[in-house]
Design goal:
Helix 4 crosses helix 12. The radius of gyration is 24 Å and the shape is globular. Strand 3 and strand 4 form a beta hairpin. The longest helix has 37 residues. It is α+β, with helices and mostly antiparallel strands. Strands 1-2-3-4 form a 4-stranded antiparallel β-sheet, sandwiched between helices.
Length: 344
């Protein structure tokens, strides 16, 4: 018996409505998960604080989405002075209002705590990311540059973080009005601080950027007000889909990414998601892997050295060995870090 073709037609509106329902449930699940896990993460922090070098060893086993951004010079700081990493979804209300649906659980704050060191004055570096929606339809994480108080001659970013911070400060002072023309809006790019930032970026290559450059990431310029209006418009559009009067979502234009020309760390959002959604919740798993890998014999490392002897320019520093150098009673053979096996 033939099937009526009209019975098999699925409209765009039906598919879009189903996707919206999935997203709503995903956000609600993440809110509930955040509230339920909060006391567990607090307990974990108390436990791992008694484990020497817990977080440096977690980073040693970090997934490729994190590991690729850690340069050898970064490893020296992280292995010797990183005390803790903490991730909070600060827009989610914790008890006594556990059923609240306000706040986007995708917004995160990532905090690194360090012991006193030779590189910078800060003991805490905290980076906040807000999940925002733009009028053009784009949605994702945006941030503000974090100033790192580098000690004289020890800036691992070669001035990029400071230049990005000063450009951001200058833009805030400029504060163009919301109703100004596109020409007026672009005047901020003529500020001397932006010129200094562009010069710094001209001499930098993305593949060699310090991990600490990530603290200067900004992303798209979307204010809280624009995001709120866009969320309301999107909600109205979705309601229209249910009644058959909704329009397709807006699409990005060719020039919608121009404001990213002065982005010092283009993969900033990806790294934030990798830390908050993978590295941080899986910290105990990665620490356990580090302990298991630590059972490798010196012969295993030497065999790896022989097979990679032609890769001198692509040497990867093993954080485990940097950690060991900071422990007492280590012999001279620990002075030079062994080469780390690449993650497959």
């Amino acid at each position: 018996m033939a099937t009526n073709q009209q019975d098999t037609i699925v409209t765009y509106e039906e598919l879009a409505e189903l996707e919206n329902d999935f997203e709503t449930i995903e956000l609600d699940t993440l809110r509930r998960q955040t509230r339920l896990q909060a006391p567990l993460y607090k307990k974990r922090a108390e436990l791992v604080s008694r484990i020497p070098n817990f977080w440096p060893l977690v980073l040693e086993q970090a997934p490729p989405e994190v590991d690729q951004f850690i340069q050898p010079a970064d490893s020296n700081v992280l292995a010797s002075h990183l005390l803790s990493i903490d991730v909070t979804r600060f827009e989610v209300s914790l008890p006594p209002d556990p059923e609240s649906t306000e706040g986007n659980p995708r917004s995160v704050a990532i905090k690194f705590t360090f012991s006193p060191n030779d590189w910078f004055e800060d003991e805490v570096l905290e980076k906040k990311f807000w999940y925002r929606r733009a009028k053009i339809g784009w949605a994702g994480l945006v941030s503000e540059p974090v100033r790192i108080r580098w000690k004289n001659g020890e800036d691992l970013t070669d001035g990029l973080t400071e230049a990005a911070f000063k450009a951001w400060e200058a833009e805030k002072r400029f504060a163009p009005g919301a109703n100004e023309s596109e020409k007026e809006q672009k005047k901020k790019t003529l500020l001397p601080e932006y010129g200094a930032l562009m010069k710094k970026m001209d001499t930098a290559t993305e593949g060699s950027l310090s991990f600490f450059t990530w603290f200067a990431f900004r992303g798209r310029h979307i204010t809280a007000e624009e995001s709120e209006e866009s969320v309301k418009a999107e909600s109205k559009r979705r309601e229209g889909l249910k009644s058959g009067t909704g329009a397709p979502p807006p699409t990005l234009g060719e020039d919608d990414g121009d404001e990213l020309d002065t982005e010092v760390f283009p993969a900033g959002e990806d790294l934030a998601v990798a830390i908050s959604d993978d590295l941080y919740p899986g910290a105990v798993k990665y620490f356990t892997q580090a302990q298991e890998d630590d059972r490798l014999t010196d012969a295993d490392f030497e065999e790896d050295d022989d097979s990679d002897e032609d890769d001198g320019d692509d040497e990867i520093i093993d954080l485990r060995d940097l950690v060991k150098r900071d422990k007492p009673d280590q012999g001279d053979d620990e002075d030079k870090p062994k080469r780390k096996k690449r993650k497959s």
